[in-house]
Amino acid sequence: MISPGETTAEAEVRAFVEGHVETIAPLMRESNLAAWDAATGADTQAQERSARARAAYKTVYADPVNARNVRTWLASEDVRDPLLRRQLVLLDNEYTGNQLPPETIEDLVRRATELEQTFTEFRATFAGERVTNNQLLDVLREERDVATRREAWEASKQIGREVAEPLRELVRRRNAAARSLGFPDYYVMELRLQELDEERLFAILDEFRDRTDAPFRRFRNELDARLAARFGSAAEALRPWHWEDPFGQEAPGVGTVELDDVFRDRDAVRVAADFFRGIGLPADDVLARSDLYEREGKDQHAFCIDMDRDGDVRILCNMRPNEKWMGTLLHELGHAVYDSYVPRDLPFIVRGPAHILSTEAVAMYMGRLTRDPAWLREVMGAGLGEDEAADVRAQLRAAMLVAARWMLVMAYFERELYRDPDRADLNALWWELVERLQMVRRPDGRDEPDWASKIHLSGAPVYYHDYLLGELMASQMSAAARRGIPGGRSIAGQEPVGRFFRERIFRPGASLGWNELLVHATGEGLSPRFFVEEFVEG
């Protein structure tokens, strides 16, 4: 039946979308549940379940007739309703990337799932023992003996050898599938389907690289002097194992304020629950469904997952009482409140974040709070004097600069990986980018697939650029969200901040494109200037 004011084409689209959702909603939930069970070690058959469900979901979008119908409706002037057209755009993106034979879809999904499971189950060998990532991080954070640190760092890269060739083969097959659909490679296809233009994206990345080169070099000179003093070595002798993070993606703790001390005796989960409740974005139900503490057989990383777009949102962490895991918990809960507060009355197709980078922006905004002096005072009860507060602000600036430059490495490397996964110099290329962009010296004579030890290349392809865009967006959101908050105060207890996120960011769901959403929320499109002013020039 056609509703008043609705065209015949619009009625057809509505009927199609309703039937389509009835098909994909249970497949999405089963795929997510299986992935959750695999990550938590709850089901030994979960990997196979996950692969089957994910393949079944993607195969729905392999239907060429429905793909043509969606494209026809999009081209029709008779489909005028903006919300209907937005759903068609998103559906068209799904259909475009999955116009493949079922056996190709099944093969790609199976290979990706096997790689993810390898990361979940892998434990490195260090000092003759099987150890967790957290144990290796403890060594890099606390140990002063350089030989021991080097052994721990090398142990963190062991998985690279195990997954490098399966990953390269997956990249080859993804590229072949993308080329069969008319794209140069999988990387270009995924950017297009994420509504990102490759030229525009890398223009932003290049501009950001150029604007941060000189400030980052000055920062690195200061940092290297401190690290050299800490380890009693020349600055030229510093290598990646002198850092506390195996990838150099987090700044070493060289400030006078030891932030881990602030979090050591506090219940991070309770702190986070109280904080989100205080800004009007309660996350207690999310935490009740989540898996928060490390154990054998569990994924050692962290993520948030929306099971069904109907309220079942969960996070996975491996909590420790330190600043890193408090920040990670806030980050993942940033994702979770976004998923939770997208209105349930939105159509299923647009009932989620506007874009990957939009939800990353919210998560990164929340994760930064562990280095906000006002937040530490008001929420954690930290007795920070002015000098100590200045030190913490300097640590936040360092963290943002270091993280952003690391994100550039991942973005540039992954593009080259998909351009030619068979190039013989991938190991060398990785270290060329690390040296040029992170200014971390490569180990002498090392020729190992260290790049493959980063889980995102296997489990979250063509994603890492969204972290950097998310950081830029987070600074832009922060400027808008803080309007009206007295200077010197944190956002703790500020319900207007929660209201800003609910109404300006979460409420539209995916009914707006990511840049349209940013204009809606802040009054202008994405600009690096907010991040640069906050962390580079500030």
Word description of this protein:
The protein is mainly α and 538 residues long. It folds into two domains: 8-120; 157-173 and 186-536, Orthogonal Bundle (Neurolysin, domain 3). Helices cover 64% and strands 3% of the residues. It has helices at 8-40, 46-60, 64-75, 82-97, 102-121, 133-142, 146-156, 158-180, 186-193, 198-231, 259-263, 268-278, 284-289, 323-341, 356-367, 373-380, 386-419, 426-438, 455-459, 464-481, 495-506, 514-522, 529-536; strands at residues 124-126, 129-131, 303-306, 313-316. A hairpin with a 6-residue loop joins strand 3 and strand 4. The longest helix is centred in the middle third of the chain and has 34 residues, at 198-231. The mean pLDDT is 95.
Write the layout of secondary structure elements.
Blueprint: H1 8-40, H2 46-60, H3 64-75, H4 82-97, H5 102-121, E1 124-126, E2 129-131, H6 133-142, H7 146-156, H8 158-180, H9 186-193, H10 198-231, H11 259-263, H12 268-278, H13 284-289, E3 303-306, E4 313-316, H14 323-341, H15 356-367, H16 373-380, H17 386-419, H18 426-438, H19 455-459, H20 464-481, H21 495-506, H22 514-522, H23 529-536
Antiparallel strand pairs: 1-2, 3-4
Helix pairs in contact: 1-2, 2-5, 3-4, 4-9, 5-8, 6-7, 10-17, 14-15, 15-20, 17-18, 17-20, 20-23
